[in-house]
From TrEMBL:
One of its GO terms (cellular component) is plasma membrane. It comes from Saccharobesus litoralis. It is a multi-pass membrane protein. Keywords: Cell membrane, Membrane, Transmembrane, Transmembrane helix. Belongs to the CPA3 antiporters (TC 2.A.63) subunit E family. The keyword Membrane applies. This is Cation transporter. It comes from the Bacteria. It is found in: Cell membrane. The keyword Membrane applies.
């Protein structure tokens, strides 16, 4: 039953995006949807895929907080770049992961990468390797504010 719902949803989405109703193009859409449904069935992803990440209802608050951090970092990076290359001090550091659960480590690493001026280079069990345009970005990550926001511990 869930595959039928997926097929109807995908057909509607394809039709909405394409806007074409000529027979040839509709047949391409049906073939595309059929291939996706076959792949979905083979992967058994419709039933076993996790429905949400474990930070639950805090995800909305976290997204707004992260968006604010992205804007602030973008302003900081712009000032840094316009200030001249003498202000840049590229740094690579290992940031220990203390509180983030195993499931949310990818969210943590991706959040670091989304923030301008920082890039997650490698994610290991107890740490994430981060490249930053300046040492102050590394220092902020080591303070653990982002980690606390993911875990819900804002103290």
């Amino acid at each position: 039953m869930h595959l039928i719902r997926w097929a109807l949803l995908l057909c509607g989405f394809w039709l909405l995006l394409s806007g074409f109703i000529q027979p040839l193009l509709l047949s391409f859409g049906v073939i595309s949807v059929a291939l996706v449904i076959i792949t979905l069935k083979r992967m058994d992803a419709a039933d076993s895929e996790p429905k949400r990440i474990s930070i639950g209802s805090r995800i909305i608050f976290y997204c707004f907080w992260l968006l604010g951090q992205i804007v602030l970092s973008a302003i900081q990076v712009t000032k840094l770049i316009w200030g001249g290359s003498h202000r840049l001090s590229p740094t690579i550091a290992r940031i220990p992961i203390k509180q983030v659960t195993h499931k949310n480590r990818v969210l943590y690493a991706n959040s670091i990468t989304l923030t301008p001026g920082t890039l997650s280079v490698d994610l290991q069990d107890n740490e994430v390797v981060v490249h930053a345009l300046q040492q102050s970005s590394i220092d902020e990550l080591q303070q653990g504010d982002m980690e606390k926001m993911i875990t819900g511990r804002r103290s």
